[in-house]
Each structure stands twice: as structure tokens, then as C-alpha cells.
């Protein structure tokens, strides 16, 4: 058992190194970033505790991948398997637990411990007979695949919008929009297999335009209930709402371009830093977007064979 | 027509393809045979434009890859995409409007199930269906018969004959010689990244016997099975 966890630790380190993050920096910056993001979430909404537990359980559920669990079952006895899974879930919940206790949210912390242990008992095997329908079938794949993996976020986001209207809290409504855009951005963080780029008979420029068009259309669909709700009930803040919505488009586009500018690899640290700086100082995007675009065209050229 | 001139591919110091010269004509089916690691897949990847190489690959098309359907040995599928969406994705990539995918479901695949849950053979059949619906002129099929049931094997064989009849160029690699013998006009024997020879239809049986002798030899006898 100990060897299994040591191996997990080694794999985490390898992933960080592959991502271009020096280990010392990773182990100091990631907890700091986690702390400040958590703090920001708790300062934005009174429902942060619920969201926090939900988010933690979402991450923990990713460790319940059926193939991995089947492998663990084949090498450990039933008792050891349950211990490994429980400890694993507990380790993943530690950062969340620590922050909940720091915020004196003992009830949520307790709920998280119980639920994460409970989840260790289950093997989240995908039901092969059920296919979650999506409205994105005409232009697969990012939103079709992404939506099926994160569908549970959208009812939460819409519920938050509803709550923001009921308690007359515009910021909470904006937070629900941030949630949706972050989820949609996450659909574009991993590079796809080269076959799915190679297949396109488009130039790199047209390929990128098509990807951006699809992303913007489908993101707008997902955001529409939030936009409509907020624009009706917070008519005085409509300009801010439109501005924020347009800015979310820009970040979505930036992420798509950043993804292909690193292709075939995952986004690296300098790109992450550029995006992070642009969050603090959005005008930098005027330079960042053309830079990512030029890099993307260069990277895609070898697969798309631009004849122009 | 596709003409390959002095195609060489190296991975670092290792030469995987060495000065390949072949011509593939319209309306013909070509087999590529050789041991594992002989360079068949690399040759296909070079033709598809997925690898950088030295030499030349000329064709009648402005950009060959835009008219080429590539069936990989082990097709990749996203975890939450259905068979129907996979076909749609590949059709969209070539700006093909697809109506009524169901009627074109050649292998009766469960198109509304996630493709990642398909068996190896079903995945291959789905990937083949998708490239057929792309209206390609050239087909590069890497091990199309692998993992596929006997009925579908027959369908694929007939399909290849139909592609030939409709003037498409088809390149196949396979370890199942009987299917190659039934469909190919010419077979190229590749070894250590070099084309050893080109064999015409009339000499296929000699090639099969030769390959059998070369592959098996007296290896099994050495086991001294009793």
C-alpha cells in the first residue's frame, strides 16, 4: 500500500516537471494559489461552503475511474482496496478540509470527510447504455465531451443566478457566469490527438476561426439563461454585465489560441503566466492574443499543410 | 496518382524508411506487407503528412491529405463521444454535409453509444465508416481487418473492391495474406525500411509461400512439441 502512494507522489512530481513547474515552486505556489482562490470564493458568496464541498467531491470522483479501480482490485485484497481508496480520497480532500476548518466551517468539513469516505466504496463505472444528450452534436467535440463531463456544474450555476436574483446580489450572478466560463475554458486546456486536427481541410487560420466560432456560439447558449435573468432583474448593471460577458469571450478565445500555440504539448508555464497576468491586467491581451495566434498558426501548419 | 521519390525517414540516428520509390495509381489497390517494425505505418504516416521526411511525395491533388482517408491501426476516440458524433466530427472536418447517418451505418453499429465503449473491431468499423463518408479519393488503411469479425471482414473486402471500381486509390497493410490476395493489384514487400520488391497478382501465391517459409521456417519444430 505504501508503495502505491509513493508511486502516486512520484507520478504527481513527474506531471509537474512535465508541465514545466519546478517542484519547489509548485509545492509552494499551488497551495498559495489554492488558498487565495478559496478565500476569494468565500468572500463572494454565502453559498461558498456548499460549492466548496461540491467542488472537492467533483475532484475526488475523478479518482474513482473504473479502469484504475479494477486494477487496484486486482492487486489488493478487498479490505486493502477499501483502505487505499479511502486514504486516497482523504488525501485529495485535505486542502479543502484545511481551508474549511480555517473558516470554522466544521459542519461542511465533517460532511466532506463522510462523503469522500463514502465515495471510496463506489466504483463510478460509466453506464454504457446511457448517453447523456447534448445540444452540441452538430459541432463535436469540445463541448459535447466537456458538457458530458461537467454537466452537474450548470444546474449549480443557474441555481446561483436564481439565488442572486432572489437575494438581490448582482455579484453572485456574476460569479455564476464566471463559473460557466471557467468550465467552458477547461474544455480547451488539453491538446487533442493529432488525427483530429490533421483531418481538417482548412488552413490554420480558418481552423482557428472555426474553433473560436463554435466555442463562442456554444458558450453563449450555456450563458444565455444567466444573461437573460441578470439583465432583466439588474437592469441598472446592464452595461457592466455586457462588458463582463464580452470579456469572458476574450478569455475563451485566448485559451483556445494558447492551447494551439503550445500544440502538441499542454499549455506551459510561460503561457499560464501570460494568461494569469492578463486576468489582473486585461489590456495586456491586446499583445497576448496576436502572439498566441501567430504561434498557433505556426504549430498547426505542420498538420494542416497550409497551401497559402 | 501518388508518386513517392527517395522518401527517407529517420528518428534520430535510426533510419526507419530508406529511399523509398513507389508509384500508386488511380483505381488500383496496393498491399504493403512486412514484419512488425518494417516501416509500414511510418510510410503511411508520411504519405498522410503526419511525419516530416526527406524526399518527395507528389500527387494529383493540391494538398493530398485533404483527399485522403486514413484508418489508423488503433483509432483514437474521445471518452464521451458517440459513434454518430465521431462520424459528424470527421465529416465536419472535410466540410461534408451528412444527412441520415443511420442509413449509411454499414456495420450496424450502435451509433448513439459512446465510441470508447466499443470493442476493438467496432472501433475499427466506426473509423472506417467515418473516412468512407468523407468522400476521399485516396484511402490508406493500416490493418483494416485486425480485430474485425468474419462477416465484417467480408464487407470490408467487398468495400475495397467497390473503392477500386470507383477509381479510388487504396493502400492496405495487413498480416492476413488471403484478404490482400483477394483485393490487391500489387503488393510491396517492405523490410527494414526498404522496399524489397513489388509483386504482381500472378505471383501472389509464390509470395505467400515464400513469406510462410521465411516467417515460420523450422521455428515451430524447434519447440519439439509432443
Which secondary structure elements does this structure contain, and how are they paired or packed?
The complex is a heterodimer of chains A (308) and B (226).
Chain A: H1 2-18, H2 23-44, H3 48-61, H4 66-75, H5 78-102, H6 106-120, H7 142-150, H8 153-166, H9 170-186, H10 195-198, H11 204-233, H12 238-262, H13 269-280, H14 285-304
Helix pairs in contact in A: 3-5, 3-6, 5-6, 8-9, 8-11, 9-11, 9-12, 11-12, 12-14
Chain B: E1 2-11, E2 14-24, E3 29-33, H1 40-48, E4 54-59, E5 68-71, H2 83-93, H3 120-132, E6 138-142, H4 150-165, E7 169-173, H5 177-183, E8 186-191, E9 194-200, H6 204-216
Parallel strand pairs in B: 3-7, 3-8, 5-6, 6-7
Antiparallel strand pairs in B: 1-2, 1-4, 8-9
The largest sheet of chain A, given as strand count, sense and whether it forms a barrel, is:
none
| CA radius of gyration of chain B | 18 Å
First-last Cα distance of chain A: 57 Å
**What is the ordering of alpha helices and beta strands of chain A?**
HHHHHHHHHHHHHH
Overall shape of chain B: it is globular
Mean pLDDT of chain A: 88
CATH architecture of one domain in chain B: 3-Layer(aba) Sandwich
Task: Give descriptors for this structure.
heterodimer, A: about 300 residues, mainly alpha, about 75% helix, about 0% strand, globular, B: about 230 residues, alpha/beta, Rossmann fold, 6-stranded mixed beta sheet, 3-stranded antiparallel beta sheet, 9 strands, about 30% helix
Would you kindly provide a brief summary of this structure?
The complex is a heterodimer of chains A (308) and B (226). Chain A has 308 residues and is an all-alpha fold. Helices cover 76% and strands 0% of the residues of chain A.
Provide an overview of this structure:
The complex is a heterodimer of chains A (308) and B (226). Chain A has 308 residues and is an all-alpha fold. Chain A has 2 domains: 2-120, no CATH class; 142-304, no CATH class. Chain A has 14 helices and no strands. Chain A has helices at 2-18, 23-44, 48-61, 66-75, 78-102, 106-120, 142-150, 153-166, 170-186, 195-198, 204-233, 238-262, 269-280, 285-304. The longest helix of chain A has 30 residues, at 204-233. With 226 residues, chain B is of the alpha/beta class. Chain B has a domain at 2-75 and 138-218: P-loop containing nucleotide triphosphate hydrolases (Rossmann fold). Chain B contains 6 helices and 9 strands. A 6-stranded mixed sheet of chain B has the order 5-6-7-3-8-9, with helices on both faces. A 3-stranded antiparallel sheet of chain B has the order 2-1-4, with helices on one face. In chain B, strand 8 (186-191) and strand 9 (194-200) form a beta hairpin. In chain B, helix 2 (83-93) runs parallel beside helix 3 (120-132). The radius of gyration of chain B is 18 Å and the shape is globular. The relative contact order of chain B is 0.18. The mean pLDDT of chain B is 91. The A-B interface holds A 126, 128-129, 131-132, 137-141, 144-145, 148-149, 192-196, 198-202, 302-303, 305, 307 and B 48-50, 52, 62-63, 65-66, 70, 72, 75-76, 78-82, 84-86, 88-90, 92-95, 112-114, 117, 134.
Amino acid at each position: 500500500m505504501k508503495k502505491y502512494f509513493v508511486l502516486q507522489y512520484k507520478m504527481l512530481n513527474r506531471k509537474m516537471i512535465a508541465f514545466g513547474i519546478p517542484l519547489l515552486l509548485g509545492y509552494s505556489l499551488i497551495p498559495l494559489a489554492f488558498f487565495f482562490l478559496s478565500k476569494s470564493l468565500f468572500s463572494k458568496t454565502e453559498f461558498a461552503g456548499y460549492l466548496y464541498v461540491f467542488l472537492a467531491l467533483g475532484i475526488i470522483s475523478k479518482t474513482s475511474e473504473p479502469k484504475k479501480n479494477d486494477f487496484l482490485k486486482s492487486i489488493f485484497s478487498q479490505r486493502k482496496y477499501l483502505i487505499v481508496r479511502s486514504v486516497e480520497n482523504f488525501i485529495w480532500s485535505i486542502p479543502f478540509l484545511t481551508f474549511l476548518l480555517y473558516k470554522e466551517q466544521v459542519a461542511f468539513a465533517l460532511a466532506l470527510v463522510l462523503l469522500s469516505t463514502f465515495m471510496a466504496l463506489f466504483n463510478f463505472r460509466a453506464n454504457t447504455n446511457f448517453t447523456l444528450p447534448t445540444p452540441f452534436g452538430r459541432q463535436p467535440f469540445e463541448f459535447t465531451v466537456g458538457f458530458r463531463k461537467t454537466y452537474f456544474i450548470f444546474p449549480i450555476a443557474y441555481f446561483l443566478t436564481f439565488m442572486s436574483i432572489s437575494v438581490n446580489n448582482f455579484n453572485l450572478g456574476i460569479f455564476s457566469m464566471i463559473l460557466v466560463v471557467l468550465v467552458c475554458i477547461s474544455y480547451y486546456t488539453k491538446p487533442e490527438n493529432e488525427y483530429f486536427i490533421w483531418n481538417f481541410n482548412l488552413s490554420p487560420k480558418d481552423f482557428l476561426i472555426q474553433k473560436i466560432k463554435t466555442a463562442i456560439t456554444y458558450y453563449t447558449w450555456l450563458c444565455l439563461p444567466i444573461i437573460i435573468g441578470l439583465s432583466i432583474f439588474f437592469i441598472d448593471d446592464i452595461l457592466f454585465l455586457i462588458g463582463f460577458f464580452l470579456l469572458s469571450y476574450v478569455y475563451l478565445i485566448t485559451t483556445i489560441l494558447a492551447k494551439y500555440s503550445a500544440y502538441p504539448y499542454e499549455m506551459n508555464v510561460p503561457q499560464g503566466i501570460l494568461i494569469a497576468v492578463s486576468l489582473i491586467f486585461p489590456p495586456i491581451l491586446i499583445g497576448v492574443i496576436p502572439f498566441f495566434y501567430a504561434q498557433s498558426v505556426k504549430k498547426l501548419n505542420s498538420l494542416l499543410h497550409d497551401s497559402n | 496518382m501518388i508518386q513517392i521519390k527517395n522518401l527517407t525517414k529517420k528518428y534520430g540516428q535510426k533510419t526507419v524508411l530508406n529511399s523509398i520509390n513507389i508509384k500508386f495509381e488511380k483505381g488500383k489497390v496496393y498491399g504493403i506487407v512486412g514484419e512488425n517494425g518494417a516501416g509500414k505505418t511510418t510510410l503511411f504516416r508520411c504519405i498522410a503528412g503526419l511525419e516530416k521526411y526527406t524526399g518527395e511525395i507528389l500527387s494529383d491533388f493540391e494538398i493530398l491529405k485533404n483527399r485522403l482517408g486514413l484508418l489508423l491501426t488503433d483509432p483514437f476516440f474521445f471518452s464521451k463521444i458517440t459513434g454518430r458524433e465521431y462520424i459528424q466530427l470527421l465529416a465536419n472536418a472535410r466540410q461534408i454535409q451528412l444527412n441520415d447517418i443511420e442509413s449509411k451505418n454499414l456495420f450496424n453499429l450502435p451509433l448513439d453509444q459512446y465510441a470508447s465503449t466499443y470493442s476493438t473491431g467496432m472501433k475499427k468499423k466506426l473509423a472506417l465508416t467515418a473516412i468512407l463518408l468523407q468522400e476521399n479519393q485516396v484511402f490508406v488503411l493500416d490493418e483494416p481487418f485486425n480485430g474485425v469479425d468474419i462477416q465484417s471482414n467480408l464487407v470490408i473486402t467487398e468495400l475495397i473492391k467497390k473503392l477500386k471500381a470507383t477509381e479510388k486509390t487504396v493502400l492496405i497493410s495487413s498480416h492476413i495474406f488471403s484478404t490482400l490476395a483477394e483485393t490487391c493489384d500489387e503488393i510491396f514487400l517492405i523490410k527494414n525500411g526498404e522496399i524489397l520488391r513489388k509483386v504482381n497478382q500472378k505471383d501472389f501465391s509464390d509470395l505467400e509461400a515464400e513469406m510462410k517459409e521465411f516467417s515460420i521456417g523450422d521455428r515451430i519444430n524447434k519447440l519439439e512439441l509432443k
